[in-house]
User: Fold this.
Amino acid sequence: MKLSVAANYEFDLVAQLAGSPVTEVYGKFAADAVGGGRPSYMGTPLTKNDLAVYVSLLNRHDIAFNYLLNSSCLGNREWSRRWQKKFARLLESLGSIGVRRLTVSTPYLLERVKAAFPEFYVKVGIYAQIDTPRRARFWKDLGADALTLESFSINRDFGTLRAIRDAVGGELQLIANHPCLPNCPMQPYHQNGFAHSSDGSRRLFLDYCFLSCTLRRLEDPSLLIKAGWIRPEDIGFYETMGFEHFKLLERGIPSAELLQRVKAYSGRRCTGNLAELILPYGFKRPPEKPRLWRLRHFFRPGQVNPLKLKPLYTLMKSQGMLFALERSPFHIDASKIPADFIEGFEPRCCARLACADCRYCEEIAHNAVTIDPAFQRDQSAHLKKARQQLIDGRLWGV
Assistant:
């Protein structure tokens, strides 16, 4: 087992990761010329010197740093001389501080890096949507050193996983602990929103997709089981198929939570609340943010009336997104998930099944998943109201 773990840039955590199966830590600046897979407001503000010190510390513990250039869309800026110069300066700067690994999600960026900066080991990110042997072969032939497979959709499609493993050699990575909706129809829209909210343009980003999928989970708790996460206990099942690289989310979360995830997966066992390993927010200790970060990221004169953002701000706070939350309202009792849980998907292909006809996940959720009733009731009402504000255009006075 080899783990790639999210960076939160807290130096004390690095020594605690040493000696574990963590071989790589991934992250990026909150914004850069390329953009990435999370909006800037979720990123940790860093200077080049901050990153240099962090990368050096990781190197001393034989842990690589992977810089994310995983934007799914560059907005056609990549065809301008100005962007090309910015991109070259960024990679030269990263190389000068010891970064030797990158993650990309577009074919052009892979070819551009390999042509101009062949010293980098380049991994393809999940936003490339590698979900067939043909797509995997395309990226390998283009020069990729490693591939992240489309874990949202195929982590439990074992026929596809085996076919991809047979089709290409080298490093294939699976995301082990994501909570996303299976085969999420909003994924392309969501990742493009992230791309344009982390490219330095400072455009306002209101996360319609987050509101929508959170509401769906509250209304249908079985989605917490249907999400294609991998239990720590089931890592060995994937290893028998030839997979040894696993990525753990989420960037910016507290060190104690990241360490809990590393320990659970390296120990191949989860006790208690499995939701603590997969949800990206709702922690007792809030992520550290710089002074006035709310003003910087959400108040845009001429774009939206800031007073109308108060319901969204209140909703984020009550969800524990970017704020502290005393107790997680979501509970997945690990002891009530069947020991042969993963084997139950072997005869099934979820992409070709109607959940109403199968009900495997629904039955497990009935026994294992609980959501605080007051939270479920109140937050459902708030989420519906916030979504409707976006849909009706009321934030802009339409």
